[in-house]
Design a protein that fits this description.
By secondary structure, the protein is of the alpha+beta class. It contains 16 helices and 30 strands. The strands form seven sheets. Strands 11, 12, 13, 14, 15, 16, 24, 25 and 28 form a nine-stranded mixed sheet that branches. It is globular and about 75 Å long. The model has no long low-confidence stretch (mean pLDDT about 95). The structure holds oxalic acid and manganese (II) ion. The site of oxalic acid has 4 residues, from loops. Keywords: Cytoplasm, Decarboxylase, Gluconeogenesis, GTP-binding, Kinase, Lyase, Manganese, Metal-binding, Nucleotide-binding, Pyruvate, Transferase. Its main location: cytoplasm.
Length: about 600
């Protein structure tokens, strides 16, 4: 008799009509065969195997280079359950619309069945999914980003539970593209795209949108956070989970190499993950985290030996590059790489001949790599990766760090007074737009806990969940906020950033172990300017003073925007957050009067 999984696969095959069905076993032979077929059909370009062993290049369709948030929907029976920050469609309408596009979409293609585990296979932290796809590129990426194959199938058969993930490239037509989440059915349907964030369904779709819904029901956290271990001079490791909106350097922070003066002291970083954290309360009453992924799907432009030397090492082999520039020697390049733009030119991400300095008809520079070009590489290749990645219970979290890009308002670092205040700090997170994002430059976008595009249910309920979780913990992590992007009157960054950010984390962890002092301010606890180690840095103490300034007038202005944002959630916004709002207002007004 067919299992529920087999029945489901058959049903989807009846809808999409593939020529063949292949069940992925995750083996090396399967990988080699898929790579060969991809190269034959032009889906992958084999790169220089001497210089970049095991590496390939893929080009997406030109209109398919990023996550399409306006085509991404949460499909709950009631609109209110998706909340005011998500696009919503009723399940009936969503299934009907997508079914029309999926119908016959795999004709002439093979349907690959990918059983995958987010988290170590068999860990109580982990969740199993099965993705059906007509894209070999998806299979090859999924085998880097997740644990796939026969072991997972065995585990799945124990409980029969899994997230049903259906993907088809169909015609790669943006007008027939939908990324649909059905949290109540534990189902994801993605059609009409071939871009990673839309189609590697274990990542944003399962590990954040569906998992956030499951974690709310089951009492854990699915968060858009990096996880890193900081080993101090005594050899003791404390772990930090940190959430930042995009373009704030999350991946770089997760694997930073300590600056010389801190390295000399004995500091070392261990990378657990750069994008997603699943956190649970263990029997010791502490919060423990796993990274459900096994790979990085990172942005290429700007990655170099200065911004991220560990990533430069990681992506030298077994890496799939997407939408970067192809050089004549079959290596790759992107804007902000270590090497200068190749004088001999190359083939750009759209497959066209390219030369440095090229401009378009309006005089704008033509980039060789797409600004959102990517690499997919195994975490195990990262020099700072930790063997604890495979630990079924994860790592204990001492501090949660939120951050954003604020040129003026937020100080370099501050600590929340307590968990409830920390939830307010996370819920009011915001970042200023950079040239890399569509919209007005400098405009502030609210992005609570960096989850705005990823929370699979009503965010008002999500905030409540954060508040409730504290009651279940014996020793909740301390919560902090950081801002690496403050500028002086001339618009120059006051803080050097990158590896030097460890100096701030040193204070954060010293606060967690009661080794550092703090001063109270209206927005939270601040370090004294002398508490941040600036040895070996070409920076004056007066800069640190400036970086730690809190301007009550500016913060009172900020409160107006927070009020409008909170207002969107109506009755679903927990009263505790309004309480925090009013307390902050009171403290700021007092400071302004003083
Ligand atoms: C990502 C994102 O790609 O957050 O990780 O957009
Ligand atoms: Mn992300």
């Amino acid at each position: 008799m067919a299992t529920p999984l087999e029945k489901w696969v058959e049903e989807q095959a009846r809808l999409t009509k593939p020529d063949k069905i292949h069940w992925c076993d995750g083996s090396e032979e399967e990988k080699l065969k898929l790579e060969r077929e991809c190269v034959e059909e032009g889906e992958l370009i084999e790169l220089n195997q001497e210089k970049l062993p095991g590496c390939f290049l893929h080009r997406t369709a030109i209109n398919d280079v990023a996550r399409t948030e306006h085509l991404t929907f949460i499909c709950t029976k009631k609109k209110k359950d998706a909340g005011p920050t998500n696009n919503w469609m009723s399940p009936r309408e969503a299934y009907a619309k997508a079914r029309a596009i999926f119908s016959g979409s795999m004709k002439g293609r093979t349907m690959y069945v990918i059983p995958f585990s987010m988290g170590p296979v068999g860990s109580p932290f982990s969740k199993i999914g099965v993705e059906l796809t007509d894209s070999r590129y998806v299979v090859l990426n999924m085998r880097i980003m997740t644990r796939i194959g026969s072991d997972v199938l065995k585990e799945l058969n124990k409980t029969g539970e899994f997230t049903r993930c259906l993907h088809s490239k169909a015609d790669l037509d943006i007008n027939k593209r939908l990324i649909l989440h059905f949290p109540e059915d534990n189902t994801i349907w993605s059609v009409g795209s071939g871009y990673g964030g839309n189609v590697l369904l274990g990542k944003k779709c399962l590990s954040l949108r569906i998992a956030s819904f499951l974690s709310y029901k089951e009492g854990w956290f699915a968060e858009h956070m990096l996880i890193m271990g900081v080993e101090d001079p005594s050899g003791h490791i404390e772990y930090i989970a940190a959430a930042f909106p995009s373009a704030c350097g999350k991946t770089n922070l997760a694997m930073l190499r300590p600056p010389d003066s801190l390295k000399k002291k004995g500091y070392r970083i261990w990378t657990v993950g750069d994008d997603i954290a699943w956190m649970r309360i263990d029997s010791d009453g502490k919060l423990w985290a796993i990274n459900p992924e096994t790979g990085f799907f990172g942005v290429a432009p700007g990655t170099n030996s200065n911004t991220n030397p560990n990533m430069v090492e990681t992506i030298k082999k077994n890496t799939i590059y997407t939408n970067v520039l192809l050089r004549p020697d079959r290596t790759v390049w992107w804007e902000g790489a270590d090497q200068a733009p190749p004088a001999e030119g190359g083939i750009d991400w759209q497959g066209r001949p390219w030369k440095p300095g090229m401009t378009d008809e309006t005089g704008k520079p033509v980039p060789g790599a797409n600004p959102n070009s990517r690499f997919t590489a195994p975490i195990s290749q990262c020099p700072s990766s930790t063997f604890r990645l495979d630990h079924h219970h994860g790592v204990p979290i001492s501090a949660i760090v939120f951050g954003g890009r604020r040129t003026h308002l937020a100080p370099l670092v501050y600590e929340a007074f307590d968990w409830q205040h920390g939830v307010f700090v996370g819920a009011t997170m915001a970042s200023e737009r950079t040239a890399a994002q569509v919209g007005k430059l400098g405009e502030v976008r609210r992005d609570p806990m960096a989850m705005l595009p990823f929370c699979g249910y009503n965010m008002g309920k999500y905030f409540k969940h954060w508040l409730t979780m504290c009651k279940k913990m014996k020793k909740p992590p301390k919560i902090f906020n950081v801002n690496w992007f403050r500028v002086d009157d001339k618009g120059k960054f006051l803080w050097p950033g990158y590896r030097e950010n460890l100096r701030v984390l040193e204070w954060v962890l010293d606060r967690c172990s009661n080794k550092a002092e703090a001063v109270k301010s209206p927005i939270g606890y601040l370090p004294k300017d002398t508490d941040i180690d600036i040895s070996g840095l070409n920076i004056q103490r007066s800069h640190i003073k400036k970086l730690l300034e809190v301007d009550a007038g500016q913060w009172l202005e900020e409160l107006k925007d927070i009020k409008t944002f909170f207002g969107r959630f109506k009755d679903d916004l927990p009263k505790e957050l309004w309480q925090e709002y009013r307390s902050l207002e009171r403290r700021l007004k007092k400071k302004k009067r003083a």
